[in-house]
Amino acid sequence: MDVSENLNMTVSSEIDNIIRSLVANSDIIFKSQQRGDSELNASEKTVIALNTFNENKTSFLMKFGKYLGQDQLNFFDQFTKDFKEIELVLQDLKTNNTKKRNIQVKNRRYEALQQMSKENSYFSEIEMMKRNPLLYEHLVGQYLSEDEKRERDKYEMKEDVTLVKILMEGIERNKAELTRQLQQQTEDSQMEESDSSSDSSDEERDVEEISVSVKSARPSTSRWGEFEEHTIQATKSKKSTPMVTMTERLLLKEEFVSTMHQNFVEGKDSDYFDYSTVDDNSSYDNISEMDHDAEDKYFDSEDPDEDEIRDYESSEDELDIYMNALNQHPAVCQLAKSIDERL
To answer: What is a single Pfam family found in this protein's UniProt entry (predicted)?
Structure first.
């Protein structure tokens, strides 16, 4: 058996698998039929699809391409060298396929978020605090009273609680505190670098002035940077927690929760969550009818015009609308301004 025969067998096997997947899809219309015509059986559908593929691969892609996955579309790359129109159609299909997959993944994650929020486990205050302790401290933790902290940290004793679970909870909270400290150190170093870069416009004058300042404040034996470091630490120690109203506290907590929700949907929780359990799980396709209609309107069109695509791509989902509204809330803007002035 020569190379060409092997290649033909491979192509035949792959197209057979593709056509089988098309035949199994009940949403595909293989042939226009009149009312009262008998429904096409699997063999008839297979013949129609195979004949279309053999006669004109561009027509095959235009008719069935939107029902193919990314790997199936990649099969047609081998035909683009000789047929430019196939390359153009294929490129458009792959782009739309990627967009469709991204929307599907985002919708599934959002549905999973809704379900897990009701269960009050992954998105409980304690669990979210463990995943991003520094953000929690900035927006929520620093405004809690000692009694509120004790109530928050109180371990809920349930019937299935074991000593091992209690010990694991303690380990996780210690790990969260260590994470917070590391995040704080990273944030502090970034702020110092930002301050340093903003003062580099007149480097020689700045170095001279800083040198004089260090010499006058400390003995000449001090090492470079010690004065600046101690000054920063002293300044931080003098900062006090700004006073905020209960309404402002609620808005800050709402912002924290919304940020954690958005992080989950955007795939930023990969260190804590196995996204494959959601992204590839069709049981999370239980999205609202409105979302289905929007998706169908865009993807069921064989040749959507550019304005429709632009409008669809610029539309915001519930999470984006919620976050934008929250960030533009007058109370949040005033609170952020007030905190900046006090710090």
So the answer is: CCD97-like_C
